[in-house]
Amino acid sequence: MKKVTILGSTGSIGTQALDVIEKNREQFQIETLACGYNTALLAKQIEAFSPKQAITAEEADARRLSKQYPKTEFLWGEAGLLAAAADESQLLLNALVGMQGLLPTCRAIEQGKDIALANKETLVAGGELVMRAVSEKGVNMLPVDSEHSAIFQCLQGNQGKPIKRILLTASGGPFRGYTRAQLAGVTLEQALCHPKWSMGKKITIDSATMMNKGLEVIEARWLFDVPLRNIEILVHPQSIVHSAVEFEDTSIIAQLGLADMRVPISVALAYPERLVRQARGLDFFKEGANLTFEAPDPTVFGCIRLAYEASEAGGSYPVVLNAANEVMVDRFLKGQIAFTDIEKNIQKILEHHTPTYNLELNDIIDIDQKIREEV
Ligand SMILES: NC(=O)c1ccc[n+]([C@@H]2O[C@H](COP(=O)([O-])OP(=O)(O)OC[C@H]3O[C@@H](n4cnc5c(N)ncnc54)[C@H](OP(=O)(O)O)[C@@H]3O)[C@@H](O)[C@H]2O)c1
User: Fold this and answer.
1) For residues 371 and 350, is the Cβ–Cβ distance under 8 A?
2) What is the best residue among 5, 12, 145, 372 to mutate for testing ligand 1's pocket, by most ligand atoms within 8 Å of CB?
3) What pLDDT shows up at residue 130?
4) Is 97 in the pocket of ligand 1 (CB under 6 A)?
5) Nearest CA owner, ligand 1 atom 26
6) Contacts of 165 (CB under 8 A, 6+ apart)
7) Atom 28 (ligand 1): residue with closest C-alpha?
8) What is the pLDDT of residue 159?
9) C-alpha span between 325 and 320 (Å, rounded)
10) Considering only Cβ atoms within 10 Å of each terminal Cβ, which end of the chain, N or C, has fewer?
11) Interior CA angle at 151 toward 147 and 152, to 5°?
């Protein structure tokens, strides 16, 4: 039995992970479940999985639920998330959204736990530091993002072999093929309507601006230790090829399948084993018959360029990119700015930033806070 803790159990990734675990009860035991504010769903999850510990964002919610579920220990806030990261589990699935995922990831690595990482912001802001800790502690960093899970799977049996290119696929989001003038008029409703994946709101907007792909390039850089210039984005609207790796001999190994996050979640949860899934696989004569690939247009989707530039510049720039993006996406979701302001404002914030280098964990947290306050 693998003991698993899930941070963000009430979100899109968290609920799908619990769905996988529900179907494989004999292999997994839930140690801790952590949510933010959706305590009604957390209560249902506690009834179904009887975790030893549960975490809420608010103290009042934790106190209320502890009366209802006396066998579960309740904690709250950041201290609760850090306690969850240091619990008895062997694997921490980090499915939190945003920068708040960084500290619990670091704490779990410190404790020698394997990480199943959905929270890409962790690697965007703290990639170098996190991957150094992973290597020092000898833990597994198992990607949950479908593209990175694909690359991870392509590399099995090929570890250490030089990688010529990583081919990171992208659906293109809801505004694929749009001009900049067309983007200026898009609504929140349109931006939230992703053609292929059903996900949390923040990542859905990131997919619409294509910042998500930029963040994934940075994530891939750190996960697979590949220079940015060797990571290429392929827009592949069918979302069947989840990414690929080209080796020095020009062989390309790709991972394919229907678009279903339960697959990469299963790979990460079960690693190094594979789970049996009662689901139909890809039919090459149907979904696989017309696979197309095109280059992204960074002159329309400027967030891709901003992400490459911030990562190339290094130091505090990626931290600023991530913080500015989180603030701007939140403002767009609240109807306070237009869609194209997300990119424009991030660019301005990056241009005005005075960088610092050789960052420790505390520096990253401070810079993130400062940017949020200033913005
Ligand atoms: N969804 C996907 O298909 C997908 C694919 C690849 C990568 N990812 C990445 O996975 C991460 C999660 O994405 P998602 O789509 O699952 O997001 P989501 O549906 O918005 O879920 C986010 C989770 O974080 C919790 N949370 C929010 N604020 C919190 C707080 N202050 N304290 C504790 N918990 C808090 C939420 O709890 P409440 O809902 O209870 O407030 C929820 O459980 C993101 O980094 C995303 O980029 C997602």
Assistant:
1) no
2) 12
3) 98
4) yes
5) 36
6) 230, 231, 232, 245, 246
7) 36
8) 87
9) 8
10) N
11) 115
Tell me the CA–centroid distance for residue 199 and ligand 1, in Å: 9
Chain region(s) in the chain for CATH 3.40.50.720: 2-143
Chain centroid, CA 268 distance in Å: 13
The residues that bridge with 168 in the sheet, in sequence order, are 233
Which residues in the chain land under pLDDT 70? none
Cα 222 to averaged position of ligand 1 atoms, centre (Å) = 21
Q: Where in the chain is the domain with CATH 1.10.1740.10?
A: 159-257+296-374
The two tokens of residue 119 are 């929270």
Alpha-carbon distance of 312 to 319, in angstroms, equals 13
- Output the pLDDT for position 215: 98
Residue 49 token pair: 């999985």
Q: Which of 58, 97, 194 to mutate to test the pocket of ligand 1 (most atoms within 8 A of CB)?
A: 97
Ligand 1 centroid to residue 261 C-alpha, Å: 14
Is the shortest distance between the CB of 231 and ligand 1 below 6 Å?
no
Residue 191 CA to ligand 1 centre (angstroms):
18
| Nearest protein Cα to ligand 1, atom 3 | 199
Ligand 1 atom at minimum distance from 261 CA: 3
Q: What's the rounded Cα separation, in Å, for the pair 72 and 122?
A: 28
Q: Does the bond joining 272 to the residue before it have cis omega, within 30 degrees of 0? A: yes
Give CA–CA dist 39/250, Å, rounded. Answer: 51
Is the four-CA dihedral 176, 206, 218, 370 of positive or negative sign? positive
d(CA 316, CA 223): 19
The pair of three-digit structure tokens given for residue 351, joined into one six-digit string: 């241009």
Which numbered atom of ligand 1 lies nearest the CA of 38? 40
Tokens representing 20? 């996988």
What CATH number belongs to 2-143?
3.40.50.720
For the chain, strand residue ranges (E) read 2-7, 28-34, 53-56, 73-76, 91-94, 114-117, 141-143, 163-170, 231-235, 241-247, 252-256
CATH fold label, 159-257+296-374: Rna Polymerase Sigma Factor; Chain: A (1.10.1740)
Q: Tell me if 119 CB under 6 Å of ligand 1.
A: yes
